[in-house]
Amino acid sequence: MLNNLGVSATNRQIIKLAAPISLALLIPQLSYFTNTVFLGRLGERELGVNGITGVFYLILSMIGYGLSSGMQVQMARRAGEGDKEGMAQILMNGAMLAIMFALGMMILTLWFVPFLFGYSLHDSDNFDLSISFVYIRVWGLPFLMITQLLNAFFISIGRSRLLISGSLVATLVNIIFDYMLIFGVGIFPALGFKGAAVASVIAEVFYCLTMVGVFVYQGLYHTYPIGKFLNFDFDLSRRTLKVASPLIIQFMFSIGGWLVFFIFIEHLGPQSLAASQVLRNIFGIVGIGTWALATTCNTMVSNIIGQGKRREVMRITYKIVKLSLLYAIIICVLLLAFSTQFLSIYSRDASLISFAVPSLRVIILATLIMSISTVMFNAVVGTGNTLVNLAIEITCVGMYLTYCYFIIYKWQSPLYICWGSEFVYWTCLVTFSFIYLKSGRWKGKEI
Questions:
Q1: What number of other Cβ atoms are within 10 A of residue 234's Cβ?
Q2: Residue 307 phi/psi, 5° resolution?
Q3: Choosing a second label site near 304 at 20 to 30 A (CA), which of 26, 87, 408, 445?
Q4: How far apart (Å, rounded) are the C-alpha atoms in residues 262 and 126?
Q5: What is the DSSP letter of 405?
Q6: Span 425-445, pLDDT tens digits
Q7: Domain ranges of the chain
Q8: C-alpha angle 133/134/137, rounded to 5°?
Q9: Following DSSP, what letter does each residue of 47-78 receive, concatenated?
Q10: Contacts by 60-64 with C-beta closer than 8 Å and gap 24+?
Q11: Helices and strands counted in the chain (H then E)
């Protein structure tokens, strides 16, 4: 018999958990979409530089996501065991750990980013724009990391619908301030590219305050007595980092590979960089359902193991893979049918749209592989053996970067060939994840 925090491996349960996560992911994607459209109106340079700075900040946010994912694995396992006090302790200690991480990353970023962009970017104007953006954007990190932790907690207790309100508030705030601060409206000055950074920071503050408010309004501090755990627990932090640190390094490698990709693309010229930023945005929109199902797989696998039902792991993983692939096929068919129309939303430049169409078709096909590999990989995460995740990620990113180095940097290939790197990465990821899951070596892993 299930405890009240247990989950069952049914399609209804999967969709019930994944649907709110999808909506919570869709809402901020609308914000990124609007941001890209606004910057596309400023010019090709701003649109392209937004790709580089966006990926750099994504690395920082994914470090936070790796930390919260490690805690999510722990909290989902405690949920499967019915240990509510254990979940409260992980949540409260995790909040203190997240703030320490955020402050450390802010200091490191302010010092390191001039060296990184100064060495890697060829265009001095791109360098100046990138630095000015990141120096503002980084101030949202503490709020973002607390939000990520609360989101992981809500998913762990099976109440993913609570994610929607925070995403909605953040997106509305971001879109409104984006428009007012980029173009200048009323009392607000026209800050251009910097306005997008300021708007994003404001949105992250509102997002965090909303999720804290949801936690309090729902009275969850009674069910999960966080007030009992106000002291920092070094032993718990050590155990948390043991699970989370491979995930953090894994995400750094994963998104870091994408940053290298964009830096190489910058060497191909402003049109390639601008087109790639649009394509990255589309990739995010297409992947919404897939990432929601992958997060669901992570949580359900950990929960099922916590219930002692290890034999169910492969069955539930296959179920989620089928749903993810079906979703991807539907989205890909629509994008293939309306490629030009969709790209025209981002830019009025007909030459840029025509230039991006072949690469968009490559991305659409790569998405089919991503829909399978992302779920499989998150099933590996859910088993708690994060060192294996790290080994898989390093291997896949290594192959990805090898492709990028020769195809983009050395041979200066056409853009659609450059985006073929996605096939290399996702194919490697699904292959290694499947081999590990079938091996059964994850059984008996304690976290």
A1: 9
A2: -80, -5
A3: 26
A4: 12
A5: I
A6: 999 999 999 998 888 776 655
A7: 11-439
A8: 90
A9: HHHHHHHHHHHHHHHHHHHHHHHHHHHHHHHH
A10: 60/105, 60/109, 60/138, 60/141, 61/141, 61/144, 61/148, 62/251, 62/252, 62/254, 62/255, 63/101, 63/105, 63/248, 63/251, 63/252, 64/98, 64/101, 64/102, 64/141, 64/144, 64/145, 64/148
A11: 17, 0
Provide the token pair at 117: 């962009």
Structural tokens at position 124: 């001095």
Residue whose token pair is 């699970």: 243
Give the alpha-carbon dihedral of 130, 58, 54, 22, to 10 degrees: -160
Q: Which has more pLDDT, 425 or 305?
A: 425
Q: What is the pTM of this model?
A: 0.75
What digits encode the pLDDT tens for the residues 130-180? 899 999 999 999 999 999 999 989 988 878 788 888 888 988 998 999 999
Q: For residue 105, how far is the Cα from the chain centroid?
A: 17
Cα separation, 211 vs 142, whole angstroms: 14
* Terminal Cα distance for the chain, rounded: 23
